[in-house]
Design goal:
The protein is mainly α. It has 18 helices and 3 strands. It folds into 3 domains: 85 residues; 107 residues, DNA polymerase, domain 1, CATH 1.10.150; 177 residues, hpI Integrase, Chain A (Orthogonal Bundle), CATH 1.10.443. 53% of the residues lie in helices and 3% in strands. A hairpin with a 6-residue loop joins strand 2 and strand 3. GO terms for molecular function: DNA binding.
Length: 410
């Protein structure tokens, strides 16, 4: 723990940060080198300012300059997340708090005049048995609408005019994909489906919210051939603990089509060694599915447990390789960690996703290419309907046509 009775300068805090990083990651690790490089840049920036400004103001100023958003809002890209975390850790050190392993960055703030309305909307959704994820997502989308209104000096729903409403809809054309725009407008339509909000307006908003369409093919594809997937898998160095770990995770994605959330939630109790099967309750759908334990996965599983996984009280299958030996966060999708194997394998990722989920997408399309019906692929992927599965195989239109059931003659 940091001694709260000891006054610490910003220079001292940066030195403490360096020591903390080396102690937790090792001086020779790439992670430590990256964090220390960030600390060096920060120290260089702060060197000429510490005599004239408080450490807290310098930290906030540097966050804005480096991350490009107000302190301490979410970084605008994955690339800047590590810098943001390093700055937040130094801030904790200077205030005599223990640095955190993960930080919750401030999201967009709902303007004050609409905060009560937003809370009421959340209560109504909760009463309608909406999931926490749905409530969180829709609340975030409504903030976009409320921020727009506040920016136009409109501080009450009753003051919205048809023109202002139309301006908001038009404004989405610039900053959002068709799918993003559709999601916002669908949420807006849901919001005004509650009479308590609709009655506050002086006009009918629904003519502005009809005929909402999104171009499904606009999103980035995530499809790789079976040969490309094999090359990526073969690029993993399985002689290291991390290689054994990520290889097994990738196997679960490309053989079983598991979501990253299900992979990280896997428990040792999910494995039935006697029947050579794995049974899980899916994190997203809450449905129970069972998979046969193939030889390839069985051997990779034994290799990981015996030679990579640390002894831990946690029953999660996958735990961190460094202290503290705890499960991985549900927010970690390993995209940046998997990308290097695509590079080593020489697989072109330009214009494509390249994380665990891309392996799941590839499985769906490769199964369809092998002649497996869409409804069977839906079962394999754990979808509640074949309609969900089709979003994973949208790029393979010709095979979809072949796989389509014939319309029975009357």
């Amino acid at each position: 723990m940091i001694d709260s009775n000891c006054a610490m300068t910003l220079y001292d805090a940066i030195q403490f940060f360096r020591e903390y990083i080396i102690q937790n990651y090792g001086a020779d690790s790439e992670t430590a080198k990256t964090y220390i490089r960030i600390a060096d840049d920060f120290q260089h920036y702060a060197g000429n300012k510490e005599a004239f400004s408080s450490p807290e103001s310098i930290i906030q100023e540097y966050y804005v300059l480096t991350i490009g958003v107000p302190p301490f809002q979410s970084p605008p890209s994955k690339y800047k997340e590590r810098s943001a975390r390093a700055i937040r850790m130094i801030q904790d050190i200077i205030t005599a708090n223990e640095p955190k392993r993960r930080y919750l960055n401030y999201r967009s703030v709902c303007p004050v005049p609409y905060q009560t309305i937003l809370r009421r909307y959340e209560i109504l959704m909760r009463n309608d048995q909406k999931s926490n994820g749905t409530i969180y997502t829709r609340s975030g989308r409504m903030k976009v609408f409320f921020v727009f209104l506040a920016g136009r000096q409109c501080t009450a729903l009753g003051s919205i005019t048809p023109k202002l409403f139309a301006d908001f809809v038009s404004s989405l054309n610039n900053g959002y994909s068709s799918q993003g725009k559709a999601s916002l407008l669908y949420t807006l339509r849901n919001f005004f489906s509650y009479d308590v909000f609709l009655e506050m307006l002086s006009f009918d908003p629904f003519p502005f919210l009809t005929g909402i369409h999104s171009r499904k093919h606009e999103r980035l594809p995530s499809i790789y051939t079976a040969d490309e997937v094999r090359r990526v898998m073969n690029a993993v160095d399985r002689s290291t603990p991390w290689g054994k770990t990520i290889y097994l995770m990738m196997l679960f994605a490309c053989v079983y089509g598991l979501r990253s959330s299900d992979i990280k939630a896997l428990s040792l109790e999910n494995i039935n060694w006697k029947s050579r099967s794995i049974t899980i309750t899916q994190y997203k759908t809450h449905r129970e599915v069972t998979f046969p334990l193939t030889d390839e996965i069985l051997f990779a599983l034994l290799d990981y447990i015996k030679n990579a996984r640390h002894n831990s009280d946690s029953r999660n299958l996958f735990i961190r390789l460094r202290k503290p030996y705890i499960p991985y966060s549900m927010n970690d999708h390993f995209g940046d960690k998997i990308f290097k194997y695509f590079e080593i394998a020489g697989v072109d990722t330009k214009g494509k996703h390249h994380g665990l989920h891309s392996l799941r997408h590839s499985l769906a399309t490769n199964l369809l290419s092998s002649g497996i019906p869409v409804n069977e692929i839906a079962v394999i992927l754990g979808h509640t309907s074949a309609a969900s599965t089709k979003t994973y195989v949208w790029s393979d239109i010709e095979h979809l046509r072949i796989a389509a059931l014939e319309v029975p003659k009357k």
